[in-house]
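Why should sequence recovery work at all? Because a backbone constrains its sequence more than one might expect. Tight turns favour small or flexible residues, buried strands favour hydrophobic ones, and helices have their own preferences. The token representation captures these environments compactly. In the example below, the structure is given first.
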């Protein structure tokens, strides 16, 4: 880690169309605002170039994907260089004909790609038909080296898996980042909505606790209609946040508005916490064989 304090920004946005260039420029305006406030590293939400297209299965949607490098990486790479900022983007990658990924791309104050991560855990649930679109990642859980440290970038559904966070931390991640697109089915009761959001927040704060690292989460916000007749669509719940290495909430956005957050993260606390709570020292790696199995004995 090169810095004791890092100013981290995140963007929580509503996406109203699939006009990529328009959406990129809207993101760019928010990025420039955060940079003016001193942000050194900025996280964008999952699949921020378009609306969340996985509410149905439609082969024409593959037209939204693009290669990496490609137009999106050209745009955001130039922006990272212009703003002298570490930038974490989330793109629909066309790797080859018939082969697509949900991919996060990181730029380190340059238009060159510093690294990328392909989403490993792919959901397939009503309204979230991602297995139709995305091949599971094959780059493993490798942090990306940048000028502010090693960034453990994971994507949305990955956030429910302690194994993913642990492996990123074991490989040296200084901070965990989760670009996200999650929301409510409007048919759920208010109590059920609260339980879902509470579980989502708790599991990610637990990753911070269990690995003694900060966690940064950027979720989209607003309602996006479903193309399926009589389907209620998704009300994305925002609630983006930054947590410290003991799971303490350092900043949190609301549930229903576009927002940007900027947080001064004290990275010296990670070392302090790890000395007092040495989880990695006490792990019983001799007794964890079943973790590589689908289920127990």
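From this structural description, the recovered sequence reads:
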């Amino acid at each position: 880690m090169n810095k004791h304090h890092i100013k981290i920004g995140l963007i929580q946005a509503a996406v109203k169309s699939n006009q990529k260039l328009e959406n990129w420029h809207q993101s760019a305006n928010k990025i420039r605002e955060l940079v003016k406030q001193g942000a050194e590293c900025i996280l964008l939400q999952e699949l921020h170039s378009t609306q969340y297209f996985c509410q149905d299965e439609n082969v024409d949607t593959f037209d939204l994907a693009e290669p990496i490098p490609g137009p999106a990486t050209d745009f955001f790479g130039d922006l990272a260089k212009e703003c002298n900022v570490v930038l974490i983007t989330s793109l629909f990658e066309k790797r080859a004909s018939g082969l697509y990924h949900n991919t996060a791309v990181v730029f380190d104050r340059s238009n060159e790609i510093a690294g990328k991560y392909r989403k490993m855990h792919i959901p397939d649930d009503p309204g979230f038909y991602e297995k139709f679109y995305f091949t599971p990642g094959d780059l493993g859980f490798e942090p990306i080296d940048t000028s502010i440290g090693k960034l453990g970038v994971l994507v949305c559904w990955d956030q429910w898996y302690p194994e993913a966070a642990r492996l990123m931390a074991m490989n040296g991640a200084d901070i965990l980042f989760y670009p996200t697109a999650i929301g409510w089915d409007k048919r759920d009761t208010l109590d059920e909505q609260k339980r879902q959001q509470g579980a989502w927040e708790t599991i990610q704060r637990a990753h911070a606790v269990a690995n003694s690292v900060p966690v940064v989460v950027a979720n989209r916000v607003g309602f996006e209609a479903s193309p399926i007749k009589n389907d209620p669509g998704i009300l994305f719940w925002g609630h983006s946040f930054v947590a410290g290495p003991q799971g303490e909430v350092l900043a949190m956005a609301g549930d229903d508005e576009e927002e940007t957050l900027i947080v001064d993260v004290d990275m010296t606390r990670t070392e302090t916490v790890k000395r007092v709570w040495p989880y990695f020292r006490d792990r019983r790696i001799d007794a964890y064989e079943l973790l590589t199995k689908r289920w127990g004995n």
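A few observations help interpret the result. The chain has a mean pLDDT of 97.
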